Amino acid sequence: MSKALEDILIVDLTTEFWASLGAAMLADFGARVVRIDELPETPRPLARGDDRHPTASWDCLHELANRNKQSLALNLDTDGGRDILRRLVGAADVFITDRPELVLRSKGLDYGALSALRSDIIYAHGTGFGPKGPDRDLPALDELAAARTGMMPILPQPGQPPVFSGSGQMYTTVMLAFGVVTALHHRQATGEGQQVDVSLFAGNMYGASLDVQAFLAMGGERFLHPVSRLDAGNPMSGTMYPSKDGRWVTLTMPDTERWWPAFSELVGIDREDPRFNTHEKRCEENRLEMMQVLEEKFRQQSADHWRAGFNARQLSADVIEDFSYPAGDEQATRNRYVVELEHPHLGAIKTLGFPIFMSDSMAQLRSMAPCVGQHSCDVLRETLGYSADEIDAMKVAGAIA
Amino acid sequence: MAAALEGIRVVDLTVWFQGPVAAQHLADFGAEVIHVERPKGGDQGRGVRSIKALPVGDWNQYFLVINRNKQSMALDLKQQAGREIMYRLVENADVFLSNLGAANLKSWDLTYEKLSAINPRLVYATTTGYGHFGGITKPSFDMTVQALTGLMTRLGEPDQPPIYLGMGSGDAYGGIMAALGIMLALYQRKRTGTGQMVDASLYGAQLFLTAPTLQAYLATGSQAFSRQRSRKAAPNPLWNSYPTKDKWVYLCLPNEDDNWRRLCQSIDDPALAGEARFGTPAGRREYAGALIERLDAALVARGAAEWMKRWTPLGIVASPVNNLADLAEDTQAWENDYFLEAYCEEVQRQVKIRGLPIGLRKTPGKVESLGPELGQHTELILANTLGYSWEQIGEFKEQGVIP
Fold first, then answer.
1. Are residues B56 and B111 in the same domain?
2. What is the pLDDT of residues B12-38, one digit of tens each?
3. Do residue A167 and residue B210 have CB atoms under 8 angstroms apart?
4. pLDDT tens-digit series, residues B271-281
5. Is there a domain that residue B317 lies in?
6. Do the chains contact at B147 and A198, CB–CB below 8 Å?
7. How far apart are CA B283 and CA B292, in angstroms?
């Protein structure tokens, strides 16, 4: 099996989950990613103070975001450490970082400095709010970016607190990886490297693109305040109803004419019911009434009953599940969206797998996330050509660990 | 300035949102993207008339923005002659992208086997609903697939209905995921000379979209990660959302004594600052519920802007929870080109659009045109790109292969 990025060496100076994961996605497809763990103390992801490390012995987010990587532990406050990083950058194709611009400049790790070492370097910088504008130096926190994006107030039902989903950062992860590979493609053709910029703000905005774009074009109060789920624009699309057992069903059948015969039969509404027998009546005149009727109908049977009915009629509708569903779903494992791995201490555990399928160069789990400094000697010896004596001297000087 | 994807030709046989937006990313960076549509009605996205029960207005931004920088070719693939044109197009293309069902592509003989035989260098990309393997044929729309991931059930306050992330939120993620897969395959192709098949499904992408919490659930099986959790039970009260006199604010402070001291200073409440049980990180965690209640009461005293004015000089990290009207005027979005203005032929004026979320400094993305009219470039592509004679093009018209 070939690897899409097998010729690529990436230096990864990231701490936050979303940024580290962007580099991991490239590692999954074969890039050699050397993660820099800074000494004396590697900056930890910004502490939210929540229980993000669910098992004491295994940090599952660190594992996901740093799998397939090597770790080089460096003290960038020593001459030796800085020299090693400069030599590594000289040998690298890509540099990825989420450190603040001011820190990068002060450490001589900005694009100008690194492109002097390697003129065709792809330098990817993930920030909170982009490289320009008054807020370019705000911390790169998904909560801050989400709060600015305008969606949090309208996700819940009326009267409920705003909702932070944590998904905005995930768009940024993939934008980062996409930006890097697009820049690599350009470099392959022209020999030219460049800086790639992505931000959590852009990621959040892009994730909300339809609502954002619709508001820009149309305006309207309905985009500014939560809309009740029983006041949807189309009772059969973008709606959800509780079933008898408390689990919810959701429908997406925007062109209701197409679905009405099978759908009306399933829920037990007369197909010719004069209140609902045209698209206009369903979505305009009697829209609210229809939602009340559906609310009542769906409460009469269990979610499993409805799923069986949806599937039998190939309707565009499903049950709203919790995480136990993908955790046990054969479709998810078969496509390697969820994979099982053998952990050296914990035994068989499940982890998120690979969202992209490539027929000739499948993503691979080659190694677990490294311990701090696990590959320091290998990288120095094999990639940079340091002698054993030089490596020992670096250790004694505290430049590496 | 040069374009990063100059010289890459993409056949974009997609409809609605996820597929078109994947190709939009490539088009923004200079790929030549040909949106192939059925002659009658075209891409279903053209038919969008209302959003949130509001009329879309005089320009259909749903379709025009995600199909910007593209050409449109109207082609009847139900006819053999239409498929022959498609084969010639594929022969001259680098990427074939589709989000039509597998059965549909098979019935039109547009399978990977067929097209890669015509052009071994082709990157054949799909955005299926539920993955390349497994053969699931049920319809897949953004929200019905988001429903399966478990994310919707986890969000919001306990006992409230599930939360949907917003229109097309999962489609958007599947779109950028597919664009990444295509770029990986194109990069590899330059080394190996051969294309391959790529799939980024809506299900696979949306499982990744909820990675931070799904990963924790997979590791532990604990319902602490799969169930709704109230903001009133946030383990760190200093990292939480709070109502103010007007809009909400989101406070992002690690649970450290210094942060607590500065927050108390800004609130100007000596009683709260002096309360011993809140004086340590462990105490603030143990009595989080009580502290959140106290902060709820304290922060409604002023508006969000006033809090920000007090907090910024103190280094207290927070943001007002804005709405879309605030976003539309956010300088930060405009200065970084996350929003742009573009000329819309349909209404003959400048309109505001979603801009360029990914910056490539030497080869920046561009918006040169909004979405094309249905079939606007059909004849030009047939004549110039594929080398058909005007006589042949006339015959295609007569046969109804093209409009």
1. yes
2. 999 999 999 999 999 999 999 999 999
3. yes
4. 999 999 999 99
5. yes
6. no
7. 13
